[in-house]
Amino acid sequence: MNSYVLLATAIICEVFGSSMLKVSNGFKKILPSIGVLLGMGSAFYCLSLALSTIPLGTAYAIWSGVGTALTALIGVIIYKENFNLKKLLGLILIIGGVVIMKLSGGSH
């Protein structure tokens, strides 16, 4: 399987797991807690497979940056969290950093 597909899957799983943290109520609700474990476990598994061909720094920058941005958007869209110019600027900087890391290449 393509390593970037695995990385994208890891990101989606991590965003799901992080989103379930919000509703798990400190791991007091069983189904969201199971969602956290499955999401995060799947994320780390897929990330570990993607690392077979993607350099660690690049993969982690993409995984954490895109995951952070998507999780922030989930917070705004689903959980109705505040969104302002500072948050927008932060997300733009995160995405810009990921793009720069990707463009810088790197060796394996």
Percent helix among the residues? over 70%
Q: Label the structural class.
A: mainly alpha
For the sheet with most strands, the description reads: none
Give the distance, in angstroms, between the N- and C-terminal Cα atoms.
18 Å
Beta-strand content bin: under 5%
Q: Roughly what is the average pLDDT, rounded to an integer? A: 91
Task: Specify the overall morphology.
Answer: flat
Helix and strand succession?
Answer: HHHH
Low-confidence stretches: none
Helix tally equals 4
Number of strands: 0
Radius of gyration, in angstroms, nearest whole number: 15 Å
Could you walk me through the main structural features you see in this protein, from its secondary elements to its overall organization?
By secondary structure, this protein is an all-alpha fold. It is 77% helix and 0% strand. It has four helices and no strands. It has helices at residues 3-23, 30-50, 56-77, 85-103. α1 packs antiparallel against α2 (30-50) and α3 (56-77) runs antiparallel to α4 (85-103). 22% of the residues are buried.
Summary tags:
108 residues, mainly alpha, 4 helices, 77% helix, flat
Short description, anyone?
This protein is mainly α.
Note the topology.
Blueprint: H1 3-23, H2 30-50, H3 56-77, H4 85-103
Helix pairs in contact: 1-2, 1-3, 3-4
